[in-house]
Amino acid sequence: MPDDSEALRFRRLRRWLIAGFVAANLFLVVAYLLMALLARRYAIEETGRSMSGLAQALSEQAEATIRSEAAILTSMQREIKARGGVAAFDETAWYKMFMSHLDLFSDDPADKPLHALYFVTAQGIASASSVSNPTRRADASERPYFVFHRDHPGDDLYISALSQSKITGLWVFFLTQRINGPDGSFQGVLGMSLRINRFEELFERLRLPADGSISILRSDGAPLFRHPFTEAFATTKPGDIAGLAAMVEKGAGFQAQVSPFDGKARIAGYNMGRRYPILAVASVTLDGALGGWYRTLSWFTGLGVAALGLGGVLFVFTLRHLGSLEREARMRRLTQTVDQNPNMIMTTDPVGVIDYANPSFYRFTGFTPEEVIGQTPRILKSGDASPEIYADLWTTIRAGREWRGEMPNRRRDGQTYWASVVISPVLDPENRVCGFIGMQEDISERKRIEGRVAELVAELKESNQELEQFAYVASHDLRQPLRMINSYLGLLRKKLVSSFDAEAEEYFAFASDGARRLDQMISDLLEFSRIGKQSAWESVDLNGVLADGLQNLHVAISDSGACVTMPEGLPVIPGDRSELTRLFQNLIGNALKYCPPERKPAVEIACGDGGRDWILSVKDNGIGIEADCLERVFGIFQRLVSRTQYEGTGIGLAVCRKIAEHHGGRIWVESVLDQGSTFFVTLPKA
User: Which DSSP string corresponds to 660-682?
Assistant: First the structure.
């Protein structure tokens, strides 16, 4: 019996040992498989987040590059407008303007061959270029950019798909803008072609893995640039890119996909541009993303098989070691991101002593690490910034808040540059400031362009003020002698009326009527010159504006038997109430005046939502306007009908146009002769 009891105990112990061994090994196997799956997923997600961050940086850099190139088109638009429109340019004038802007916006001669500026007429003919081009006079009327600008009013920038030049064989894409006339009419397209190596500088700073790639696409999938560049990318169709619509809709993130360019499974991070419809994509092959995971998995498997009996201990050790590897990899990726960032970055301790600066900082400023580490950011102080800027900076960051601003700094050689600066405090787990990190971007070129634009705007404003003052003074001084003429004509008529025959009476009537009409014209011209000078800007309810205008026209409406309809609930906008009242009073008054005698005037007022503007319309059933006179009616003293038929000086619609433009809107008319006209006015929303 004792023997049986001892055997039972041994059997039980054996069973417990076997069960424990199996349970331990089963636990290790399950833990091993679970860890392998989670680690793989983690590696993919980390790679995806890294690629997404890289795509965001690329998107911002690509937009900055496009924005700097688009500044050339914007500057040329201003020059075209200042010179009176495209009619003022022949092919030589176009070429001179193109070359002057290339010189103005590009200090580096190596940049100029990357650009080609051109002009396409409203008929779709490529009539001018900055280069000797056999395709000049070519028909561009079917090009997508031309069709887009022809059918879309406004100054939106159009980014074309990548295409290969039939002349040079180079891959290029185009940036284009619509040229509008003073009335908003389509006058042609202004554009530039950019070689794809314009974007090379975005990729030279990045040390991509051997299987990494970066792409820039239009939001509809049209290709713009890829590194490394392949013919397959250049000929990609939007439908070839899996999940494009989802990427555009989501805006930013990452996803696994099979590349249409090399057929490999990739982890792709993506980011939509904020200002332009472009999509930046950074990707690495799935094998590349899992390279570290493969190595870790093989190493861990070998240790587990070799020391299965110590699985629990080795398992804990391996987890800790794996965590260390992950932290090291994370720190290495962070260091690489900071080192490769094109912006200047530095970090300091809590009292402002510099302990790190990235290569971009040394490359741009000319300082060496020995001259920077251990110093304070005062080494960049140019002396041109006000003390208040620095006081606000330190007050903000010492309070644990981020500071953003622009200031003039200096390089090692003493040269001053403008920088956009962001300084953020670094907080420890207890929310105490343990240091600062600062990032600055060189914006000297932008500041130079802004300064030049400000000078041009000031010159234009001064010129306009001088012209308005001249018109006011001249008109005011003309009224005094005119009053004297009227007065003496009246006295002369009283003295000689007894000796007047019918012909003399007619002569005096002509003279008096001419003086009266001249006085009215001068009075209207004075009113025209005063518009915008004494504005009382406030929130204006358009319901009240129309009510005031209709009250002022009450007698005319009653005498003519007119029917005036207007909508309810008109919006409130910023503006000058008296000027807006006069605008709509003039439009409604014209609708009453220019109506055939056999008709009763019918005036319909409407309001619609135009996005950024309200669009108001005044429709009548009057005599209408001929098609070739729709723009002339807004000129000063422009009359299209005989004065014997309809009274007036011809300045009312010119006043309406000036009031609309003073309020940041515009006015135009659509009309059918003898059936009526509809005047449209846009006014910005509050």
Answer: HHHTT-EEEEEEETTTEEEEEEE
